[in-house]
C-alpha cells in the first residue's frame, strides 16, 4: 500500500474536525500542545506578577503596591507557577511526547486527557479572573491555616485557591493515572521494559509519584474548604484541630511536587544529552534505580519545610538526613550525564546551551538544598530570602532550563526547522545572566535577615543595593524570555529547514512525518535488539508505508496495540474513542459545581456534581464494542483480541491505580485522625463519642452483601444466567449502607462542628458513604451497558470493575468504621498523658 | 520475543525495598510522637525506636539476601536479568537509606 | 553596570554587619550557625566548581574523560563523592543542633513571647509578670528560654543576630534558647507570613548588663504604660 493512501485513510479516522469541532478534540497531539500553550500563557502571567514584586521591592519604602495587592500578587505568582505552569507543562510534555517516544498512537483514555485539559483551563481561569476582580488568594501559595480560615480570611480569596487548585489537581490526577497505564500497557510491540527509552521510565515514575502525592493535598483542601464553608474544625486549635495538620498534608504533597517537576525534565535531559554526545546513555540501570530511590525518598523529607514549627530534634533528624541523602540519586544522574558526554563526541547546539544552564543553576540549587537540610542552618534561613533564592534555583534548574532545552530540541518535529541562532544564543545569555543576577543575590539578602513575603523594607537595614540589583536582573531575564518567545515563534517562519530527524536521534518520535500526523505512526514500529541504534529517521519511510504493525485502516476504528507489561509482546487491540464534546460538557458541569461552591449555592453544587457523575456514566455507554470479535489480525501474522475481551484491559489497570490514589487519600485521612488525637491541643473533647456498634455492623454487612452480589453477577454472566438480579441486590445493599452511614453521622458526639473529634469521625463515615454512592454509579452503568449489549461473558470487564470497586469500598469501610468505633478507647487513653 | 514474558507482578518488587523504608519512617515517627505525648522514659522510647528500626532493616536485608541468592531465570530473557539487577540495587539502596536516614537520629535527645 | 556591581558588593560586605544579619552573630547560637554556614559555603564552592569544570572539560576536550570507565564516573561522582561529603555534614549539623536545644537539665529563666496580629507581647514571669510590647528586654551573657505562643494565626519569632527562628503556632508552646553576649539593640521580627501587617510585625531586642536587667525592665515597662 502506498504511504499516501494509508495516510489519507488513517487521517480520515484520527483527525480532529475543523472549526468548532476543535472543541471535541481528544487526540494527544492536539491536547498536548494545548496544555503546553496554556501553561506558557500562565507562565507569562505569573512572570508579570513576579516582575511586579520586583518593582515593588526594587527600592525601600516603596508605595507602588499596597500590602493587600502585594499579598495577592505574590500568592498568585507562586500558585500559578507551581500549579498552573509547572505541573501542566510537564503534563503537556508527557501527553505530547510519551506516546510518540514509546511508539504508540495515543494514550489509553483520550477523553480523559481532554477532560483533564478543560478542568485545568477552567480552574486556571477562575484563579486568574479572581486577580482581575481583586479577590485573589492572599495567604501565600501554601495557604497556612489559621490565616486561611474563615476567621482571618473571611472573603472568597482562600476559597478561590482551594477550589481552583483542587480543580487543577483533579486534572493532574486523571492524567497521572492515564500516563501510568499507557506506559505500562501501550508501547511499541517488542518494547520490553529493559528496552524502553529512558524517558518512559522517568514518566512512569513521575506519574506514579503524582498518583500518591496529590491525594494528601486534595484531602487537605477538602478538609479546609469544609472548615471554611461548614465550620468543621479540622485545623482550628480552639476546637481540637491543629494548624500543623494542614502543613503535614500540604508538604506531603509539596515536597514530592518538586521532584514531580524535575523528573520529566531529567527524562528530557537523559534523552537529549546522549543525542548530542553521539553515544548511548551511560548507566541506564543505575538511572532507573536512582529515580525509583528518588521517588520514594522525596516523600520522606516533607518535614524539612517544617523544621521551625517545634517538632522535637530527634524527629527532625530523620528528615534532615533524608534531605541530605536525596542528593545521591540526583548525583548519580548528573554523573551519568557527564559520563555520557565524556565518552561521546559532543556536538554543540542551542539545546546544549540550555543543558549548560541547567548544570550551572541546578548545581547551585542542589547545594543550597543540602545546606537547608541541615537543621540549625535551616532555623536561620527558613522563610528568609535565602529560601526564595534556593527554590528559584531549583525550579529554574529543574524545569525552566531543561524545558527550553527540550523546546529547542523537539520544536523541529513540529516546524521542520531549527532555531534562529542569532536570536537564540543572545536570548539564552540574557535569561542566564538575568536569572543569576536576580536570584543569586537573594541568598545574601536572606542571610542579612530579609524575610519572605514582606511588601517593603526600611532603607537602613542594608538590603537596598541587593534588592535593586535583583530587580535589574529580573528585567534582564524578562527581556531574555521575551527574546526566547520571539525566537521560538520566528523558527516557524525563518528557521533553517532541516531534513527529518535533524539530530540523528534513535527515539521513535523522529520516525514520523513532520509535523506529526494525528495517528502518529502509520504503522507501529517493532522493537528488536538489532535495530535499537538505528537512526529513527531511517525507519520513518518503512513505517509510513505500513510495514510495521497495524499498517491499515479497519472499521473506521482508532486502533493501537496493547502490550504485555514487561515483555512488550502484543496482547490486545485497543480501540480508542473518537472525538466528542463529552469531555468539554463534563468539565463545564464540574466547573459549575466549583463556581456554585465558591458563591455558596450549595444546592447548585450538588446538582452540578450529580450531573458530572451522570455524564461520566454516559461516557461509559459509548465505550467498548457491541459484540464479541475474537482475535483480530494486527499485522506480521499476529492476531490479538480487542481490549474488551482481555483481562488486563487499560480500564482495569486504570481502576487499580485510581484506587492507589484513593487509598492514599484514605491513608492520609487515617493519619490525620491519629495526628489530631496525639498532637492537637484541646483534646479530649467535652463530650465522649459513643458510636452505635449495631449501625456500624449494619454498614459492614450491607457492603459485604454488595461485594457478594457483585461476585454473583459475574458468575451469572459467565454461566449465561441473568446478572440483573444480583446487580439489583447490590444496589439495595449499597443504599442500606449509605442510610446506615448517614444515621451514624447524625449521631456523632461531639457534634462535628464543635470538636475535631466529631469532625474526623464524620469525615471517615462520609468517605464510606461517598464510596458506596460511587458504587451505585458503577451498578447503574452496569445495568445500562448490559441492556445495550456491551457486556457479554467474554466482555465482562464492567462487572469486574464494579467488583473491584465494591471490594475496595468494603475494605476501607472496615478500617474506617473500626477507627470510629475505637475512638472512645483512644480518647480514654489520652487520660494517661502526664 | 521467544522467551516467556516476565510476570507483571515482578514489578511490585521494584517498590518493595523502599516500601519498607517508608514503613520504617512512618512507624518511627509515630512511635516517637506517641512516646513523647505519653512521656515514656527516654531509655524505653529509644529502645522502642531501635527495635522498630532493626525490624525494618532485617526485613530489607532478608529480601536482599533472597534476591541476591536467586540468579535471574534464563528462560525469561534479558528483561528478567534487567529487573533482577534493578531490584537488587533498589534493595541495597533502600537498606543503606534506612540505616543512614533513620539511624543517626536515635542518638539524639528524645523529646526536645 | 560595573559601578553598580562594585558598590553593590561594597554595600553587601558592609551589610554583613547589618542590624538583622545572621552573618554578624551576637550570641552563641547565631555564632554556631554562622560558622556552620561558612563551612558549608566553602564546601559548596568546591563542589560547584568541580561540577562546572567537569562539564566544561567533557565538552571542550572530547576524549578527556573517557579514560575513566562510565561505571567509574557514576560510582565516583554519584556515590563516593556524596559518601565523603554528606555523612560528616549531617553529623556536624545534628551535633550542633543538639547543642542549641533548650534541654531541661539547666533550665534558665523563661520569658513568654506571644504573637498576635501584628504585635509581639513579652511577659517576664520571673520579674513579677511585667509586660512589654514589641520590645524584648534580655540580660546579657546568660541564657534565656523564650516560650513562644500565638493568639491567632501562625507567626514566627526571629532575632537573626541571636539565634534561629521558632514558629508561634496557636495551641502550641515552643521553646527557644537565646543568649546575647553583650548589651545592645538587635532587630527581631515575625518571619512567618501572617496577613496584612506581616511586614510591620517587627520588634526590638534590648540587651542590658545582667546586673542592670531588673531595673531596666521595670523602667521600660513603666514607660510603655
Sum up the structure in keywords.
A: 834 residues, mainly alpha, Cytochrome C Oxidase, Chain A, two-stranded antiparallel ribbon, 23 helices, globular, B: 112 residues
What would you note in describing this structure?
The complex is a heterotrimer of chains A (about 850), B (about 110) and C (about 220). Chain A is globular. In chain A, the strands form three sheets. In chain A, strands 1-2 form a two-stranded antiparallel ribbon. In chain A, strands 3-4 form a two-stranded antiparallel sheet. The N and C termini of chain A lie far apart (about 85 Å). With about 850 residues, chain A is mainly α. Chain A is built from 23 helices and six strands. Chain A has helices at about 5-15, 30-55, 65-100, 110-130, 155-185, 200-230, 245-275, 285-295, 315-325, 325-340, 350-375, 375-380, 385-415, 420-445, 465-495, 535-545, 580-600, 600-620, 650-680, 695-720, 725-745, 755-785, 795-830, and strands at about 415-420, 495, 560-565, 570-575, 630-635, 640. Chain B has helices at about 15-35, 40-70, 75-100. Chain C is α+β, with helices and mostly antiparallel strands and about 220 residues long. Chain C has four helices and ten strands; from the N terminus they run H-H-H-E-E-E-E-E-E-E-E-E-E-H. Chains A and C meet through helix 3, helix 9, helix 10, helix 11 and helix 12 of A and helix 1, helix 2, helix 3 and strand 9 of C.
Q: Mean pLDDT score of chain C, rounded?
A: 91
Radius of gyration of chain C: 23 Å
Q: How would you classify the quaternary structure?
A: heterotrimer
Tally of contiguous helical segments of chain A:
23
CATH superfamily of the largest domain in chain A: Cytochrome c oxidase-like, subunit I domain
Report the CATH architecture of the largest domain in chain A: Up-down Bundle
Q: Which percent band covers the strand fraction of chain A? A: under 5%
Amino acid at each position: 500500500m502506498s504511504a499516501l493512501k494509508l495516510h489519507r485513510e488513517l487521517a480520515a479516522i484520527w483527525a480532529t474536525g475543523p472549526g468548532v469541532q476543535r472543541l471535541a478534540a481528544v487526540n494527544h497531539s492536539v491536547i498536548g500542545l494545548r496544555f503546553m500553550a496554556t501553561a506558557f500563557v500562565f507562565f507569562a502571567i505569573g512572570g508579570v506578577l513576579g516582575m511586579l514584586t520586583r518593582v515593588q521591592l526594587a527600592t525601600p519604602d516603596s508605595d507602588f503596591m499596597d500590602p493587600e495587592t502585594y499579598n495577592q500578587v505574590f500568592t498568585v505568582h507562586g500558585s500559578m507557577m507551581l500549579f498552573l505552569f509547572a505541573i501542566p507543562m510537564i503534563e503537556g510534555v508527557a501527553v505530547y511526547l510519551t506516546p510518540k517516544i514509546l511508539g504508540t498512537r495515543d494514550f489509553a483514555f483520550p477523553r480523559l486527557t481532554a477532560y483533564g485539559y478543560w478542568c485545568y483551563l477552567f480552574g486556571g481561569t477562575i484563579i486568574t479572573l479572581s486577580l482581575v476582580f481583586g479577590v485573589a488568594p492572599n495567604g501565600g501559595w501554601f495557604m497556612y491555616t489559621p490565616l486561611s480560615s474563615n476567621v482571618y480570611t473571611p472573603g472568597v480569596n482562600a476559597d478561590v485557591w482551594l477550589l481552583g487548585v483542587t480543580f487543577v489537581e483533579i486534572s493532574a490526577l486523571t492524567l497521572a493515572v492515564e500516563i501510568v497505564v499507557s506506559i505500562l500497557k501501550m508501547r511499541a510491540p517488542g518494547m520490553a521494559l529493559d528496552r524502553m527509552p529512558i524517558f518512559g521510565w522517568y514518566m512512569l515514575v513521575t506519574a506514579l509519584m503524582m498518583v500518591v502525592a496529590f491525594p494528601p493535598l486534595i484531602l487537605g483542601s477538602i478538609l479546609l474548604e469544609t472548615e471554611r464553608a461548614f465550620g468543621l474544625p479540622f485545623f482550628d486549635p480552639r476546637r481540637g484541630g491543629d494548624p500543623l495538620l494542614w502543613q503535614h498534608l500540604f508538604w506531603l504533597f509539596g515536597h514530592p511536587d518538586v521532584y514531580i517537576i524535575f523528573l520529566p525534565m531529567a527524562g528530557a535531559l537523559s534523552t537529549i544529552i546522549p543525542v548530542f554526545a553521539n553515544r548511548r546513555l551511560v548507566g541506564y540501570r543505575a538511572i532507573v534505580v536512582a529515580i525509583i530511590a528518588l521517588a520514594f525518598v522525596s516523600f520522606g523529607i516533607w518535614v524539612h519545610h517544617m523544621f521551625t514549627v517545634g517538632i522535637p530534634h530527634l524527629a527532625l533528624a530523620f528528615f534532615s538526613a533524608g534531605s541530605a541523602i536525596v542528593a545521591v540519586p540526583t548525583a548519580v544522574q548528573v554523573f551519568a550525564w557527564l559520563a555520557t558526554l565524556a565518552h561521546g563526541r559532543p556536538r554543540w547546539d542551542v539545546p546544549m546551551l540550555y543543558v549548560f544552564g541547567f548544570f550551572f543553576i541546578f548545581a547551585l540549587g542542589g547545594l543550597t538544598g543540602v545546606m537547608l537540610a541541615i537543621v540549625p542552618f535551616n532555623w536561620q534561613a527558613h522563610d528568609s530570602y535565602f529560601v526564595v533564592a534556593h527554590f528559584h534555583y531549583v525550579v529554574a534548574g529543574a524545569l525552566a532550563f531543561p524545558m527550553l532545552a527540550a523546546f529547542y530540541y523537539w520544536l523541529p518535529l513540529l516546524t521542520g526547522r531549527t532555531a534562529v541562532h542569532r536570536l537564540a544564543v543572545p536570548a539564552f545569555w540574557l535569561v542566564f545572566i538575568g536569572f543569576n543576577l536576580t536570584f543569586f543575590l537573594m541568598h545574601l539578602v536572606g542571610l542579612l535577615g530579609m524575610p519572605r513575603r514582606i511588601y517593603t523594607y526600611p532603607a537602613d537595614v542594608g538590603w537596598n543595593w541587593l534588592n535593586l540589583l535583583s530587580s535589574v536582573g529580573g528585567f534582564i531575564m524578562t527581556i531574555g524570555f521575551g527574546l526566547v518567545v520571539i525566537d521560538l515563534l520566528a523558527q516557524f517562519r525563518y528557521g533553517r529547514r532541516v531534513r527529518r530527524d535533524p539530530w540523528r536521534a534513535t527515539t521513535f518520535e523522529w520516525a514520523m512525518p513532520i509535523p506529526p500526523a494525528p495517528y502518529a505512526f502509520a504503522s507501529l514500529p517493532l522493537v528488536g535488539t538489532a535495530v535499537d541504534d538505528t537512526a529513527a529517521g531511517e525507519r520513518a519511510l518503512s513505517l509510513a508505508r505500513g510495514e510495521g504493525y497495524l499498517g491499515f485502516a479497519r472499521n473506521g476504528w482508532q486502533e493501537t496495540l496493547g502490550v504485555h507489561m514487561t515483555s512488550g509482546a502484543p496482547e490486545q487491540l485497543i480501540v480508542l474513542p473518537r472525538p466528542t464534546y463529552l469531555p468539554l460538557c463534563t468539565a463545564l458541569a464540574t466547573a459549575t459545581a466549583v463556581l456554585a461552591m465558591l458563591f455558596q449555592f450549595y444546592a447548585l453544587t450538588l446538582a452540578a456534581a450529580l450531573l458530572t457523575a451522570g455524564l461520566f456514566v454516559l461516557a461509559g455507554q459509548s465505550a467498548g464494542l457491541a459484540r464479541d470479535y475474537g482475535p483480530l489480525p494486527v499485522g506480521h501474522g499476529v492476531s490479538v483480541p480487542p481490549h474488551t475481551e482481555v483481562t488486563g484491559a487499560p480500564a482495569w489497570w486504570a481502576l487499580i491505580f485510581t484506587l492507589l490514589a484513593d487509598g492514599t487519600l484514605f491513608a492520609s485521612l487515617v493519619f490525620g485522625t491519629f495526628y489530631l488525637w496525639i498532637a492537637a491541643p484541646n483534646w479530649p473533647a467535652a463530650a465522649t463519642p459513643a458510636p452505635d456498634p449495631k449501625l456500624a455492623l449494619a454498614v459492614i454487612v450491607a457492603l459485604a452483601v454488595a461485594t457478594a452480589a457483585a461476585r454473583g453477577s459475574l458468575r451469572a454472566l459467565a454461566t449465561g444466567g441473568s446478572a440483573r438480579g444480583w446487580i439489583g441486590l447490590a444496589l439495595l445493599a449499597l443504599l442500606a449502607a449509605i442510610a446506615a452511614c448517614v444515621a451514624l453521622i447524625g449521631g456523632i458526639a461531639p457534634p462535628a462542628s464543635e470538636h475535631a473529634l466529631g469532625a474526623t469521625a464524620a469525615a471517615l463515615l462520609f468517605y464510606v458513604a461517598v464510596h458506596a454512592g460511587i458504587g451505585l454509579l458503577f451498578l447503574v452503568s452496569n445495568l445500562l451497558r448490559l441492556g445495550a449489549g456491551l457486556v457479554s461473558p467474554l466482555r465482562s470487564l464492567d462487572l469486574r470493575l464494579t467488583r473491584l470497586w465494591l471490594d475496595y469500598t468494603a475494605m476501607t469501610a472496615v478500617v474506617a468504621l473500626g477507627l470510629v468505633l475505637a475512638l472512645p478507647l483512644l480518647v480514654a487513653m489520652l487520660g494517661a498523658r502526664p | 520475543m521467544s522467551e516467556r514474558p516476565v510476570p507483571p507482578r515482578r514489578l511490585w518488587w521494584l517498590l518493595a525495598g523502599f516500601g519498607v523504608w517508608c514503613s520504617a519512617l512512618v512507624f518511627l515517627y509515630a512511635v516517637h510522637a506517641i512516646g513523647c505525648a505519653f512521656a515514656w522514659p527516654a531509655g524505653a522510647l529509644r529502645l522502642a525506636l531501635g527495635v522498630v528500626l532493626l525490624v525494618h532493616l532485617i526485613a530489607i536485608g532478608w529480601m536482599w539476601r533472597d534476591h541476591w541468592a536467586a540468579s535471574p531465570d534464563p528462560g525469561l530473557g534479558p528483561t528478567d536479568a534487567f529487573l533482577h539487577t534493578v531490584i537488587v540495587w533498589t534493595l541495597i539502596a533502600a537498606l543503606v537509606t534506612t540505616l543512614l536516614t533513620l539511624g543517626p537520629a536515635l542518638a539524639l535527645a528524645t523529646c526536645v | 553596570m560595573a559601578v553598580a556591581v562594585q558598590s553593590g558588593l561594597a554595600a553587601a560586605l558592609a551589610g554583613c554587619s547589618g542590624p538583622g544579619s545572621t552573618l554578624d552573630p551576637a550570641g552563641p547560637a547565631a555564632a554556631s550557625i554562622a560558622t556552620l554556614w561558612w563551612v558549608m559555603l566553602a564546601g559548596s564552592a568546591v563542589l560547584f566548581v568541580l561540577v562546572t569544570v567537569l562539564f566544561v572539560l567533557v565538552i571542550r576536550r572530547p576524549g578527556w574523560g573517557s579514560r575513566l570507565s562510565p561505571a567509574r564516573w557514576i560510582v565516583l561522582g554519584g556515590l563516593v563523592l556524596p559518601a565523603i561529603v554528606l555523612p560528616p555534614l549531617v553529623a556536624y549539623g545534628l551535633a550542633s543542633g543538639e547543642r542549641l536545644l533548650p534541654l531541661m537539665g539547666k533550665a534558665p529563666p523563661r520569658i513568654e513571647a506571644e504573637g498576635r496580629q501584628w504585635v509581639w507581647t513579652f511577659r517576664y514571669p520571673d520579674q513579677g509578670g511585667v509586660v512589654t510590647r514589641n520590645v524584648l528586654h534580655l540580660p546579657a551573657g546568660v541564657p534565656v528560654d523564650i516560650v513562644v505562643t500565638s493568639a491567632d494565626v501562625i507567626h514566627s519569632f526571629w532575632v537573626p543576630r541571636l539565634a534561629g527562628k521558632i514558629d508561634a503556632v496557636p495551641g502550641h508552646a515552643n521553646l527557644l534558647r537565646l543568649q546575647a553576649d553583650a548589651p545592645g539593640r538587635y532587630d527581631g521580627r515575625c518571619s512567618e507570613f501572617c496577613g496584612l501587617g506581616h511586614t510591620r510585625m517587627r520588634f526590638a531586642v534590648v540587651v542590658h548588663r545582667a546586673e542592670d536587667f531588673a531595673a531596666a525592665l521595670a523602667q521600660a515597662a513603666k514607660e510603655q504604660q
